[in-house]
Amino acid sequence: MKKRWMAIAMTSVMLAVTACGSSSSSEETTSASQESTAASEAGGEETSGEASAEGETVLDKDTMTIGCYGAVQSLFPANDTKIPGAQVFVNVYDTLLTLDKDGNLQPMLAESWEQVDDTTYRFKLREGVKFHNGEELKASDVVFSMQVLCDSAATASNTAQFDPSGFAAEDDYTVVLTTTQPFAPFLKNLCSPSMSIFSQSFYEEHEAAGDLDLVECGTGPYKVVEWNEGENLLLERFDDYYGGPAKTQYINLRYIPEANTRLMELESGGIDLMQEVPGVSVAEIEANDDLTLWTATGVNTSYLALNYDKISDTTVREAIAHSINNEQLCEICLMGAAEPLNRVVPPSVPGSYDAGSYEYDPELSKQLLAEAGYPDGMTLELSYYSSSDNRRMGEFLQGMMAESGITLELNEMDSSAYTPFLNSRQQEAAICTTVCSLREPYQTLKNLYSSACGEGGNRVNYNNPEFDEMLNAAIAESDETKRNEMYAEIQQYLFDNVVYIPLYNMKVQTATRSNIRGFDMIYPTSYQRYNTCYFVEE
User: Fold this and answer.
1) Where are the beta strands (DSSP E) in 414-478?
2) What global pTM score does this model have?
3) I want to staple 178 with a disulfide (CB 3.0 to 4.6 A). Which of 163, 297, 422, 509 is the partner?
4) How confident is the model at residue 16, as a pLDDT?
């Protein structure tokens, strides 16, 4: 077994000049002279039998099969903001900007950008970029995409500070985007897969036909050619990709919810890459010379989401928080595949703050329940999407929380039904995860905006104008030190009010066949781009 530790450096991106300039007189421009992550991921086809740079013989294998833990809900970026959807979007679409492995801003569809004033940004687009339908990307497509994303409930938390009335195409390759207030995380927000750019004419045609969820028209290195819902999604190389054609012709994304099944498929060669390797499988992979384990520091917050629509009493929420032992959960249940987490924002993200912890204390939990009117304990329904990790976790929590007088009823759901269930605010309690892949606290905290309840990602359905004002003030602060101090106050406020109950920070663990070359973990999460991947003789 070849084990690779891909340490994702959580270096803070300095936005002081590109995103937080205080006046137009101090205008700064960032250009494509910086190495573009998109360009560096350019394909360049390998020919069977030829030697790679390492002297290995390249195989004539035209399909890379990915074992995915979650199913895609939609092919339209604004309609699927979960990680399984992002897995498709990063390969099929492009964003204006992107982040490199260290979290630094890089050009993508925009080859350069400048901040004109506190609320105005200008982007120069690459020329000659083609959509999958053959049309050339124009500034009007970018403006249209951004306007649609601003109107979408699912992306509302990403675009809350955007000002569509100021969006403009100055010419075919120059775009102006505006915000309603100074918004320090603006440029990083544009890197989110849910902010992908699409063709205006294609959108208008398929919106009228009512099939936007079933089609795509991006500019990415792959295009969708087949989707068997709940089974697999087949991507084919887009030969006119501006960064050069991908090295492997097809990417087959197979939906395999059970980790044990994914591992068996990987060992037998049925898949080439396994997402979401659980701790229980690590030793087996390490003992197999045909497999490679890739591990990265996670930037996610897995938490117990208690629905405010159904559990609003802070005393009850605190009682539930004290009924969980995070350390045991990670060590025994997840077998070391996660780190205990007591923070809303993962500690590897600049601006994360240690506000305290809800220590495991069954007696205190019982006392708090009695004070809240539950002297004989309470019953709580826990919902989660189907996976061996989640099932094991639910059963583990069931036994643990019983010590505090809490009867946990488990509601296991298929991932295709789970998201609509959360969007309609039906859950009492759920195991949820928010990913801070942009390495900016706002990405996690924005999910708690009052306007983001339900489809917007506010899974606890927290509606608090005071919180909204605190977060709006923080993101308007251009000084990073002061902004992080304001973020700290917000995280303390959330802890004191038991808004989130953090559980753990899952390590990013991916396993591949050992004859894959060109794979790298650019994103600190389970989804990656695959246009540089190819196979060699073992």
Assistant:
1) 429-435
2) 0.81
3) 163
4) 30
